[in-house]
Every structure is written in structure tokens, then in C-alpha cells.
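User: Quick sanity check before I run a bigger batch. Here is a single chain. Can you write out its predicted 3D structure?
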Amino acid sequence: MTTLGASLGDPTHEGNQRMTKAPRDVERLYSTPEVVAKLRRLADALEQDKPFRIQIAGERFWVPERAQFSIEHERDDDEEEVEFQFKWTIGSASVDEAESDQAPIV
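Assistant: Done. Predicted structure follows.
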């Protein structure tokens, strides 16, 4: 099984108050055409060296340009897994909220 994963941890702002999003750990299965389209948009965003928005299982959030990217391979007796992962610390995404509606969604 192959998954596209992203570690979530980006706070949201409501007015002047900072509100932390609830913990989340989801895995969403995508069709091959959906994965191909998502990977193409992801590659385009990475080449621009800018933060990008992504939507996974109905939630849209920002991945900062300084996020660490890793590829993980796991194997046990009856299954193998490859996971593409972005990881960053909470608060490291410095995105102007005015940009959020204009940036493409990966």
C-alpha cells in the first residue's frame, strides 16, 4: 500500500486569538489518477520553494517551505508500505492569510 501523508500541526487564527487545531491522524486512499494529479501539483509547489496548501480527507492546511521531507519504507510478514511525509513544527508556517485563497491546492 502507498500513502501520501502529511504531519499536521499548523495553528489557525480566529480574529486576533490563536486557536490550536485538534490532533488528527488520518489516512486517505486515493485513486491512481488522483495520486498522479496530487503528485504533479506537489512537485510544482516544491519547485517554487514556497509554502503550499494541501487538502487531505477534507481538511485544507499549509505546508511551510522549510518542512522536512522524508520517504519511509516499512515491511512486515505480509505487507509493505511506502510513505511520503512532510514534517514541521507548529507555528513554523508563516503564511499571509490573504494568500490562502489564491494559492493552488496540492
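The two ends are 21 Å apart (CA to CA).

User: Great, the batch can go ahead then.
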